[in-house]
Amino acid sequence: MRVVQLALIALLVVLLSAFGCGSGSKGAAGVTVPTFDATRAFADLQAQVDFGPRNPGTTAHENCRTWIRQRFQAVSSDVTEQTFNFHGADGTDYPSTNLIAVFPGSRQAGAVNLLVGAHWDCRPVADRDPTPADRNTPIPGANDGASGVAVLTELGRAFQATPPPVTV
Question: What is the helix (H) or strand (E) element at residue 101, kind and residue range?
């Protein structure tokens, strides 16, 4: 979980240095970008957690998938789904979906594309919790899952307002 948080922070630093970091500011690439709205991103995190534990195969998982897809469809005309089965450690196949939103870059040929991702599901129980009594409880997935998706939904809004120089 800590590695995921550090990776997201590193990703944000790279994106903000490349594209800028404030409303009307110019980033290193000379591109005007909107402000990343942390309050709105946190509201997206909270909305996901409100679905309940989003482990694959649950109603909460399906409802959250629909919610995320709607968020991306509001800001991108190119949203697709890749469905597959994830073979869990318990031997069960879990229905899973990748949601892909594309934001075309503003530069022409020769631009490098950028792929940014996060997972939105939860593990069904806190089997790694340091408190043994809590190891069979559901995981809300706020830090590990919802936080990454909240960053991506807010980046999607920013990319809709000001297209990035490269396709994301």
Answer: strand 93-101
